[in-house]
Design goal:
Elements (H helix, E strand, L loop, with lengths): L2 H19 L2 E2 L9 E6 L3 H13 L5 E4 L26 E5 L12 E5 L18 H16 L7 H10 L2 E3 L3 H7 L15 E3 L8 H10 L15 E4 L14 H4 L10 E4 L2 E7 L10 E6 L5 E12 L6 H7 L2 E2 L1 H7 L5 E2 L14 E6 L15 H11 L15 E6 H4 L3 H14 L14 H19 L4 E7 L8 E4 L1 E2 L7 E3 L10 E3 L7 H14 L5 H5 L2 E5 L2 H4 L2 H11 L34 E3 L14 H19 L5
Parallel strand pairs: 1-9, 2-3, 2-12, 3-9, 6-7, 12-23, 13-14
Antiparallel strand pairs: 4-5, 8-16, 10-11, 11-12, 15-18, 15-22, 16-17, 17-19, 20-21
Helix pairs in contact: 2-18, 3-13, 4-18, 12-13, 14-17
Amino acid sequence: MSLLKIGFVSLAALVGATEQLGSIKRQTTQLRSSYDFVIVGAGTSGLTIADRLSQALPSKTVLVVEYGKVENCPGPFDPPTNWLEPADSASRWVFNSLPSTEMKNKTAFVTVGQVVGGSSCINGMFFDRGSRFDYDAWTDAGGPELAGSDVKWDWKGLFPYFKKSVKFTKPSPSVAQKYGYTWDESAYGGSTDINSSYPLFQWADQPVLRDGWEEMGIKPVKECAGGDKEGICWVPASQNPVTGRRSHAGLGHYANVLPRSNYDLLVNHQAIRVVYPKGPQSGAPILEVLSRGDGTKFNITAKAEVIISAGALHTPAILQRSGIGPAAFLRDAGIPLVLDLPGVGSNLQDHSGPPVNFNYTNPPDFFPSPAAMLNATFKADAIAGFNETPARGPYTLSLGNSAIYVSLPHMNPQYATIIAKIRNAVSSGAAASYLPTEYRSLPAMVSGYNAQLLTLADLLSNPQAPNLESPWATSHISPATTVWSFLLHPLSRGTVRLNLTSPLSQPLLDYRMGSNPIDFDLHTTGLRFLRRLLDTPTMKKYGATEVSPGAAIAGDDAALVEYVKDQIILSFQHPCCTAPMLPKGRGGVVGADLKVHGARGLRVADMSVAPLLVGSHTSATAYAIGEKAADIIVKEWKKPGH
């Protein structure tokens, strides 16, 4: 059987087989009268939780409510694309944020999955974890309350769930030798059907940038998923190691775990809000749902819990429609207040950054490079290779799996000046002025932001904690080569708010990039560091000539800040942190047990609960959150009395 057919069999397993089993529901008449657990969102975290709960608690019923439908989920460069432009994708939400005033009114373009599998179905398949220090910072930002909890969310507390969440397949000796792959299997160990593997292909000029980075003094790291990440990393992809196809939650935590008689999925329905008829301490809430098919509304009864896993952009919208959120905003929206939690929809963070662009005057003469995909014969062979067993060729590469991760001390010898600015903003009280206007007079929000900044000051001072990422797959894409500077730990904070003219539509994002001016110090540090690449022997060998920002702009602080504002990408598609796991007195929405403060029978479990953005793409962390959330819930409901 060809791999193309295997891909169709996987899709059939997701559609036809589940329909035969009756797991997929499309109408209220197909639902049970009630469920023990109702999970909102069939995404990365939500399906992980549903899988684990339905397996560990077979006497309990689980329903997942999903806005989208079951679809095939191709990789970002699956055939027939030529790899120089993206392929078709599964359905996605598309957001354009409000203008960011400090970034010359630029808007952030953001997409998230609208499909069974969520954003694991549409992302770039770059499957890395943050450093150990990123997750330790979560606990630090939470203060004594989080540090003293029995449930630990630091690296030690999360690492077992990273391992559990993924099955890593090491490359064959020939592939490993050909590309120089390194790894440490002790960073993995899971048996779940979420796959992690190295691509079976690299462009021939991939080593050019790698050589340049090493000449800059950046050291290769054997394994970057084990907590230590500062250096040059090989990053696995979320792909099947044989077929090269995308591995995602819709397969690994749904289609491939059926049949289970206690596990149902309701597709094509929007979760409107949770309702507490007798108050938020009365028990598990009712979930109000809208059919996207016929427009009818109905209620779903949860006997145990409702778990919201709708992602960093939709989870706060559901909570706000439920009357859980900032009191002043809900009053203006005409929504009756159930719980005053100003942190709902606050604390929005994402990776952003500007580029360094250059041309080669003596370009590396390597074959194949991406330009080879414009050759019909080469492309036909690439498509044929993708359908072989095992797969081979360019279509197994996805977005690439190489990146550098560099700490602030290793980029800027004067880093202490930036750290002092952060600490002085807190001690002087200026930090509060960087928050949205409505939060500047709220002690909890100011306290929480100050705590975050002090935590980030410590994190950024650590020479082992990366604050810049620059990923690459090739060094030779005409007409110019670009190396991107990803700011991994921004200081600015944005918001997610209901659209008051259409509350069931997508919420409004206000990224507020650059609202904390110290972010410009971090952006310019990253640019100046990356420009040093052009002075390496490898780059000089190939006649690398800078296009932008150029020596004149880079030598002028004000001009380089203007370059950042002109060239920055405001979102690298990693939004998070909008229902943060922090004490209520620090603007938190959930505690270490992921229960919403003051609400009984209601939890949140997705990237919205992260207090701080991690120095990685977010998919692997979302899986780990789902695994840990499920473990917390299972342990609680296995206690006597439940």
